[in-house]
Amino acid sequence: MPSEPHQNHLLIIHDDKGQREFVLDGPVYSIGRDPKCDIRLVSQFVSRRHATLVQLLNDNGSYYYRIVDGNLKGKSSANGLLINGRKLQAHDLQNEDEVVFGPQVRAKYYLLKREAIMTVPPDEFDITLISPNMVGDPED
Fold this sequence. Notes:
Helices cover about 0% and strands about 45% of the residues. It has about 140 residues and is mostly beta strands. It has a single domain, classed as Tumour Suppressor Smad4. Strands 2-1-11-10-7-8 form a 6-stranded antiparallel sheet, with no helix packed on it. Strands 4-3-5-6-9 form a 5-stranded mixed sheet, with no helix packed on it. It starts with a strand and ends in a 25-residue tail after the last strand.
Protein backbone atom coordinates (compact mmCIF):
# COMPACT_ATOMS: atom_id res chain seq x y z
CA MET A 1 0.00 0.00 0.00
CA PRO A 2 1.39 3.43 -0.85
CA SER A 3 2.08 5.69 2.07
CA GLU A 4 1.18 9.36 2.01
CA PRO A 5 3.31 12.06 3.62
CA HIS A 6 1.59 13.78 6.52
CA GLN A 7 2.57 17.10 7.98
CA ASN A 8 2.02 18.51 11.40
CA HIS A 9 2.51 22.23 11.86
CA LEU A 10 3.48 23.16 15.41
CA LEU A 11 4.03 26.58 16.97
CA ILE A 12 5.65 26.72 20.40
CA ILE A 13 5.12 30.04 22.18
CA HIS A 14 7.33 31.37 24.98
CA ASP A 15 5.93 34.41 26.82
CA ASP A 16 5.20 35.69 30.34
CA LYS A 17 2.88 32.70 30.87
CA GLY A 18 5.62 30.17 30.02
CA GLN A 19 5.68 27.69 27.14
CA ARG A 20 2.62 26.56 25.20
CA GLU A 21 2.19 24.44 22.08
CA PHE A 22 -0.30 25.04 19.29
CA VAL A 23 -0.96 22.48 16.55
CA LEU A 24 -1.81 24.46 13.43
CA ASP A 25 -4.44 23.05 11.08
CA GLY A 26 -6.84 25.96 10.49
CA PRO A 27 -6.88 28.46 7.62
CA VAL A 28 -6.16 31.64 9.64
CA TYR A 29 -4.86 32.41 13.16
CA SER A 30 -4.70 35.80 14.85
CA ILE A 31 -1.77 36.24 17.24
CA GLY A 32 -1.58 38.92 19.91
CA ARG A 33 -2.39 40.26 23.35
CA ASP A 34 -6.15 40.57 22.71
CA PRO A 35 -8.09 37.83 24.56
CA LYS A 36 -10.06 37.25 21.32
CA CYS A 37 -6.91 36.20 19.43
CA ASP A 38 -6.64 32.56 18.40
CA ILE A 39 -3.11 32.43 19.83
CA ARG A 40 -2.88 34.77 22.81
CA LEU A 41 0.48 36.25 23.78
CA VAL A 42 0.85 37.23 27.42
CA SER A 43 3.09 40.31 27.51
CA GLN A 44 2.69 44.07 27.75
CA PHE A 45 5.21 44.43 24.89
CA VAL A 46 3.08 42.89 22.13
CA SER A 47 0.26 44.48 20.15
CA ARG A 48 -3.35 43.44 20.57
CA ARG A 49 -3.31 42.04 17.02
CA HIS A 50 0.42 41.50 16.54
CA ALA A 51 0.49 39.02 13.65
CA THR A 52 -1.60 36.73 11.50
CA LEU A 53 -0.88 33.20 10.28
CA VAL A 54 -2.40 32.29 6.93
CA GLN A 55 -2.54 28.76 5.52
CA LEU A 56 -1.53 28.55 1.84
CA LEU A 57 -1.45 25.62 -0.59
CA ASN A 58 1.76 24.22 -2.13
CA ASP A 59 1.86 22.90 -5.72
CA ASN A 60 2.07 19.32 -4.38
CA GLY A 61 -1.21 19.60 -2.45
CA SER A 62 0.34 20.09 0.99
CA TYR A 63 0.06 23.40 2.77
CA TYR A 64 2.31 25.86 4.57
CA TYR A 65 1.86 28.92 6.78
CA ARG A 66 2.78 32.53 6.07
CA ILE A 67 3.13 34.87 9.03
CA VAL A 68 2.19 38.49 8.39
CA ASP A 69 2.88 41.45 10.67
CA GLY A 70 -0.34 42.93 12.10
CA ASN A 71 -3.86 42.03 11.06
CA LEU A 72 -5.29 41.11 7.66
CA LYS A 73 -6.64 44.65 7.19
CA GLY A 74 -3.08 45.98 6.87
CA LYS A 75 -2.64 47.46 10.35
CA SER A 76 0.93 46.68 11.44
CA SER A 77 2.00 45.88 14.99
CA ALA A 78 3.93 48.43 17.08
CA ASN A 79 7.15 46.37 17.34
CA GLY A 80 6.97 44.36 14.12
CA LEU A 81 8.27 40.82 13.66
CA LEU A 82 11.85 39.63 13.93
CA ILE A 83 12.11 36.35 12.03
CA ASN A 84 15.40 34.47 12.32
CA GLY A 85 17.04 37.76 13.31
CA ARG A 86 15.61 39.81 10.41
CA LYS A 87 12.80 42.35 10.63
CA LEU A 88 10.18 41.25 8.08
CA GLN A 89 6.61 42.21 7.17
CA ALA A 90 5.75 38.67 6.01
CA HIS A 91 7.51 35.31 5.82
CA ASP A 92 6.67 31.80 4.63
CA LEU A 93 7.49 29.69 7.67
CA GLN A 94 10.10 26.96 7.38
CA ASN A 95 10.98 24.27 9.92
CA GLU A 96 12.64 25.72 13.06
CA ASP A 97 12.02 29.37 12.16
CA GLU A 98 12.07 31.64 15.21
CA VAL A 99 9.71 34.61 15.45
CA VAL A 100 10.33 37.31 18.06
CA PHE A 101 7.30 39.45 18.90
CA GLY A 102 8.93 41.50 21.67
CA PRO A 103 11.15 41.19 24.75
CA GLN A 104 10.79 37.71 26.25
CA VAL A 105 8.10 36.80 23.70
CA ARG A 106 8.98 34.43 20.89
CA ALA A 107 7.70 31.46 18.95
CA LYS A 108 9.41 28.53 17.28
CA TYR A 109 7.75 26.91 14.27
CA TYR A 110 8.14 23.22 13.45
CA LEU A 111 7.07 21.38 10.35
CA LEU A 112 6.94 17.71 11.32
CA LYS A 113 6.78 15.30 8.42
CA ARG A 114 5.95 11.65 8.86
CA GLU A 115 4.87 8.82 6.64
CA ALA A 116 1.40 7.45 7.18
CA ILE A 117 1.46 3.72 7.73
CA MET A 118 -1.60 1.68 6.97
CA THR A 119 -2.28 -0.48 10.00
CA VAL A 120 -4.13 -3.75 10.01
CA PRO A 121 -6.65 -4.33 12.78
CA PRO A 122 -5.54 -6.95 15.29
CA ASP A 123 -6.57 -10.55 14.67
CA GLU A 124 -9.73 -11.09 16.68
CA PHE A 125 -8.69 -14.68 17.43
CA ASP A 126 -5.23 -13.79 18.76
CA ILE A 127 -6.10 -14.08 22.45
CA THR A 128 -3.88 -15.18 25.30
CA LEU A 129 -5.71 -16.72 28.23
CA ILE A 130 -4.26 -16.99 31.71
CA SER A 131 -5.36 -19.85 33.83
CA PRO A 132 -5.88 -19.08 37.55
CA ASN A 133 -3.29 -21.75 38.47
CA MET A 134 -0.66 -19.95 36.32
CA VAL A 135 -0.72 -17.00 38.69
CA GLY A 136 0.68 -18.06 41.99
CA ASP A 137 1.89 -16.48 45.17
CA PRO A 138 5.53 -15.31 44.74
CA GLU A 139 6.38 -17.03 48.05
CA ASP A 140 5.54 -20.49 46.56
